[in-house]
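To make the argument concrete, we let one protein speak, a sequence paired with a row of structure tokens, as a model reads it:
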Amino acid sequence: MPRSMRVNAMFALVAILIAGCGGHDDDNGAPHYVSDISVPNVKAGVNFSFDIGIVSGSRYYFTDRNNASLDQIDIPSKTFVKAIQGTGNLAFTGLGPGPNSMAGPDGATPVGSRIYVGDVNSVKIVDPSVGAVASKITVSTTGVRADEGCLDPTHNLFMISSPEEPVPFATFINTSTQTVVAKVTFTDNAGKPTAGLEACRYDPASDNFFVNVDGSTANPHGELVKLPGASIRAIPSGGTQNYTTLAGVAMYGEGNCDPTGLALGPGNDIAVGCREGTTNAPLLMEIFDRSNGALLASLNAGGGDQLEYDAVTNRYYNAASRWTSSGNASTNGACSSASPCTPVLTIVDAGSRSIVTRLNTGNNAHSVAVDPATGLVFVPYSSATSPAGCSNCAANGFVNGGVSVFAAK
């Protein structure tokens, strides 16, 4: 090769290596950053409190506590459409006076043409076609949130967890009648309330609900619980039953996990996102066989909250807001100036159960949704300085807060 060609090739290689380091990861040949979308009232210095995101049709929705709304983004144009806010007794709680347990909205789940949204004491039902909260279903009166939910579309049954109740419970709602038909409480076999509830998923192939339990006496750092759909439907209408007494229930220990996100993968795989609260514990993502609870893989890919599987790319997407440069949990698992986090979007190949890549994300970026039609990935984030504890957010270009858009490939 002539010297001039060797020099040009060397410069091209250097340019490729630089493009793949830091910043917004603008690599168009692989998963990469695309753009940012601004959100009303979110700017530099603002602590943006948001939760779960979903894709429904050609729109991306996520829950926004700052604006007390379900925010709507048009996917083709990547533009903010509307902050859907209720009025009167249909209004979302917003930030509220206390912790996240007393704030809302929280979880969001597409149910037909509507979106069921967890809020304090209730589920709000949003009609996206008119951009309004249409109705609500009361599930409690204690002043804490109904959080994350999942849908059995075959039997028109929606499950939503209330993790901060004195005894955590899940409410089951008939989506045809919009009425509560059953509740399942979570007191473990030792007679103690479980530590809380996280994400749930319904598996239509086996007719089972799965839910991450934060901790029980037998499994203090988390267990994956299988709730047979037939056993839920057998509860007398309006009745309550404890999870340990359901026919066919199974509890699978998750080790030192402190689980958060949950995603059904290919075959019998089910992926669990761990967000370890033990200082210096490896941040893990675990993959189980959901038919028997066998652990199939344990990857250093945790530290997140929402976890999603996309069948088109056959990959998992983990919003790892508490990832660190060492891959181990920060002090007590929390991000701080003294023990900072380096948030990433971790992408895992579901076929080989191996890590594909990590892309830099913004501060507290713990929510993720994937549009299978366009391959776009949506990740909300807070401003670089609030909350404290992101050591590289500003340097990576995530300054103001908003929604980052990535391409899955």
